[in-house]
Design brief:
408 residues, alpha+beta, Nucleotidyltransferase, domain 5, five-stranded antiparallel sheet, 12 helices, 16 strands, globular
Length: 408
């Protein structure tokens, strides 16, 4: 190292003591990402426009995809030889640690069997329960008490809000494989600035529900249809304080759930039709992004995406321009629904409220309706005896061309 100019007391033979490594600097992650992308670009990889962390190369049997999260890399290809070539290149360019076939990635447990892929966060869920003191609690059937409305005014303010913030942050990451708690966590996350004992009690209720099946996660069957189907719903003026509505949607690729959201809308809707129309706009934007992502993965859907909505008036607004007088106050960006319908990207279909799968993303449901909602999400408990347990899956485990890599 070269001593900085103006350094006082410089003597011959002096050495610098390193106080902070490169990993501690703010620009370290950006420089690493630029270097990694540059190295992969030299091998012919192209960065996806829909997701900058995804890089692809080739086509057909020589297709290979790389998913990057800082220095954790997931490689997928139908050709194992392509993966071996890439790993040899990365090992020559950087020092990497080959973690073998896909097992754990970013805290998500993955098991590949003859029937398909199962993703869960059992260890992460058990860590949350153990840290919160709920590892031996009595489980419940729903993450929220039906009919219970949370507000900022109820309860006594917590003296230490850091524990509540940490708990909600960990639950938010758990929703990556647990869409059944998405609405409950969305409601609780609204009060992280000024939580009360009532909010903490509601958060503990979610932990009681997680204890029932900590190994529950998503299942993706093999050879599924490349057809996008979405369910869009909203709960009009459900927030008692702001009177804003909640948007909820879920998107399936064949029978596999690949995207979902439970989020409060940005503005107040004047009617339930407007709230449903705004939810449709959010769903259509998600479908457009998923279409681009699938094209980059060379898995282009063969038919237009089908969107199911339980509001006939919202469908009429999207398909019929005669309703201009009723919708001229709605933001222009919401009318993306009309544009995509006319382009043939999506097809709107009506569905009854009792068959609306996205209903569980907009409101609390009674036990029977909540169990029906969970059954439609394609969720399975990998560690339950009915599925052979973890050992049963390990016996079925076969080597697949999915390889996680840690680069250093």
């Amino acid at each position: 190292m070269v001593l900085p100019l103006g350094f006082q007391g410089q003597k011959p033979g002096q050495a610098c003591k390193l106080l902070r490594s490169l990993y501690g600097l703010k620009q370290a992650s950006r420089q690493w990402n630029a270097k990694l992308n540059s190295a992969l670009a030299s091998r012919g990889f192209e960065q996806s426009k829909s997701d900058p962390s995804l890089l692809t190369k080739g086509s057909g049997k020589d297709f290979i995809a790389i998913l990057i999260y800082v220095d954790d890399i997931l490689v997928g290809s139908p050709n194992l030889h392509q993966i071996q070539i890439l790993k040899a290149f990365l090992d020559d360019t950087f020092k990497i640690k080959d973690l073998g076939s896909l097992g754990f990635f970013l805290g998500i447990e993955a098991h590949v069997g003859d029937s398909g892929l199962n993703l869960c966060q059992r260890k992460y869920a058990l860590d949350i329960l153990n840290e919160s003191g709920f590892i031996n609690c009595k489980p419940v059937n729903t993450p929220m008490v039906p009919g219970h409305q949370l507000s900022k005014e109820g309860g006594t303010a917590l003296a230490d809000i850091s524990s509540y913030k940490r708990l909600i942050g960990r639950l938010l990451y758990l929703t990556a494989t647990r869409p059944d708690i998405a609405y409950a966590v969305q409601q609780l996350s609204q009060f992280v600035d000024t939580p009360t004992d009532e909010h903490l009690t509601a958060a503990h209720r979610v932990l009681l529900y997680i204890k029932k099946a900590p190994g529950q996660g998503l299942f993706y069957p093999k050879n599924g249809a490349l057809q996008l189907n979405a369910f869009s719903d909203s709960d009009w003026a459900s927030c008692s304080e702001t009177r804003k509505s909640v948007t909820g949607f879920c998107v399936f690729l064949g029978s596999s759930l690949i995207s979902w959201r439970s989020k409060k809308q940005a503005t107040v809707s004047r009617s339930s039709s407007e709230a449903e129309y705004r939810a449709l706009a959010a769903t259509v934007c998600e479908l457009q992004w998923l279409n681009l992502l699938l094209h980059g993965l060379q898995a282009k859907p063969s038919k237009p995406a089908v969107v199911f909505c339980d509001s006939k008036s919202a469908i009429a607004i999207a398909e019929n321009h005669v309703f201009h007088e009723r919708t001229k106050h709605i933001d222009i960006d919401c009318h993306v629904v009309r544009e995509k319908v006319s382009q043939g990207l999506i097809k709107l279909l009506s569905v009854t409220s009792t068959s609306q799968t996205a209903d569980g993303f907009t409101k609390t449901l009674p036990t029977s309706m909540f169990q029906w909602f969970v059954s439609k999400l394609g969720i399975q408990n990998l560690h339950a005896p009915v599925y052979g347990g973890i050992r049963g899956y390990e016996r079925q485990f076969r080597r697949r061309a999915l390889t996680p890599i840690h680069a250093s």
